[in-house]
Amino acid sequence: MNTPKPLIATPPALLRWSDAGEPVAQEFDDVYFSKGGGLDETKAVFLQGSNLPDAWKNTDVFVIGELGFGSGLNFLAAWDLWGKSAKQGQLLHFLSVEAYPFSKEQLTRALGNFPSLKPLADQLISQWPDRVKGVHRLHFGTVVLTLFHSSVEHALSSMDARINAWFLDGFSPAKNPDMWSDAVFEHMARLSAPSASIATFTVAGHVRRGLSKAGFPVEKKSGFGRKRERLEAVFSGGIVPNKPITTSITTSIDTPVIIGGGIAGASIAHAFARRGITPILIEPHKELDTAASGNPAGLMMPKLDLQDRPESRFYNAAYLYALTLYRCKGVVLGEGVVHMATSGKEAERFEKIIANKAMPETEMQWISHEQARDKLGHDLSTKYGGLYFPSALTISPKLSTQNLSKNCTHIHAQVAEIKQQDGRWQVLGKDGDILADTDALFICNGANILDLWPVNVRFTRGQICWGETPNKPSTALIAGNYATPHENGILLGASHDHVGAGETAKTYASDTETILSQYGDATGQKIDARNWQARAAVRVTTRNTLPIATMPEEGLYVLSGLGSRGLMTAPLLGEALVCKALSEPSPLDIRTQERFTKQVKA
């Protein structure tokens, strides 16, 4: 049996800097920018070589695929041109592969060479995911950047997109042959839309032959600067797809309908709102009275894994994506979470996680027992250290969810049944009346999921409680259960009791006493439970704890099984399902999508 590979950071971009302050890749002994002017080369080779902006004039969605993100100069130049030429309602997707991503400091220094692009560069730097492996989606208005921090073949083999224009900007084929192999060209052909273009600076013989063989007959053009020639090509077909692509060429839908107003439904609603689409959201409880998303406070923090698996990379990417979203659209109550080990085994696991550096130090740090005590402002019974997440958030799930879905058309009603008729989906109320009719229906109704669609899930009741305390902590804490500052005291949670399908979540005084006792054991504090409030809700989980995000029938989408990590996973999963519905490039690779579709019953 093969030993699982650990999830570690991507290899660093080993740079040296020229006298002019430009980056040079030490490992490949090659430059990132032309000495004749990096931005001018980008415009000549890639933008003009791809016939931009004319190529995107009459498209609703245009997709650029790039091999070799480097400093992001090509992306910024394309974004700048898009801003000057795109029409209202158009959307640009830019997908780029980079095995050796810059650090935030390197990116800042490199892009400082292009002051005309500084407003755009600052936005890129503010969302930069650093050296975190996986697929990262960044939004900049009508421009969407998807970064694949991975080797080129791994990225292309799992990419789910249709590309209209390719920028081939890896290092010299002689110095970096992996970026220019026949396998790479075949993957490009599989992913290309009809008449997709290719632009590149190189005219190396094996590149010309490989592209032509893959269905891209090449043409030499005048080069830039010291390079006499460059290549352009237009896809003419020739490769039979050997891996699935769920993204079609174009898709249009009428008003989408979402059942369920919790964080799953709200994330889908927001993804549509980004695109100027107003969905209908059906939720019987305006104040989310029974949903876990109705809690007054909750933690949004990463789910860490030692093994390098598709879902492990997804969780890191989902955390960074959710951070950006909640800071912009959520209601943030606090920042920073201390997660203390409560056993030697857990401390050993935390130490391995830190050693792997799968997340940058700005997002994850080791914290000693003494440091944790000072940060929290009170003592801890555990003798071990732990992890500190400086950016992890305490948010208001209720208010954040309502913010994300505020642009919907709201229907407050109980859904009794869904029916498919003539290729469309009807949503019926308890009296048999039709609440909505659509060709894109999203089921996100949490604990009532089995009322509408068969999925392999189970249910747990989670109770939280909150009240005043004389020693209010300054930072959220996890030590078995969790505690976060709340109003004039703290909020504590949460219980995990298995319940049956359809069972109502009730609060129990005994659970509050147990939660308070556990907090007292962790901190040495004794709290008077009188006048404390409690709330309970039902979580939906799967047996393997992975979420469900899939399209089990044409025009029907299910987002469920988020468990206790819904605040972290729902935003990116919602974006992924909306992209599937609209046939846009997915923010999830195909391997990850496969993991999230297996819990739906046949």
Strand content: 25-35%
- pLDDT average, as an integer? 93
What percent of the residues sit in helical stretches (DSSP H or I)?
25-40%
What is the CA-based Rg, rounded?
A: 25 Å
Number of strands: 30
If you had to describe this structure to a student in words, what would you say it looks like?
The chain is α/β, with parallel strands linked by helices and 602 residues long. The chain has 3 domains: 15-234, Vaccinia Virus protein VP39 (Rossmann fold), CATH 3.40.50.150; 257-289 and 401-456 and 544-595, FAD/NAD(P)-binding domain (3-Layer(bba) Sandwich); 335-393 and 458-541, D-Amino Acid Oxidase, Chain A, domain 2 (2-Layer Sandwich), CATH 3.30.9. 28% of the residues lie in helices and 28% in strands. The chain is built from 15 helices and 30 strands. Strands 14, 15, 16, 17, 23, 24, 25, 26, 27 and 28 form a 10-stranded mixed β-sheet that branches. An 8-stranded mixed β-sheet has the order 6-7-5-4-8-9-11-10, sandwiched between helices. Helix 8 (263-274) runs parallel beside helix 12 (397-404) and helix 9 crosses helix 14 (566-582).
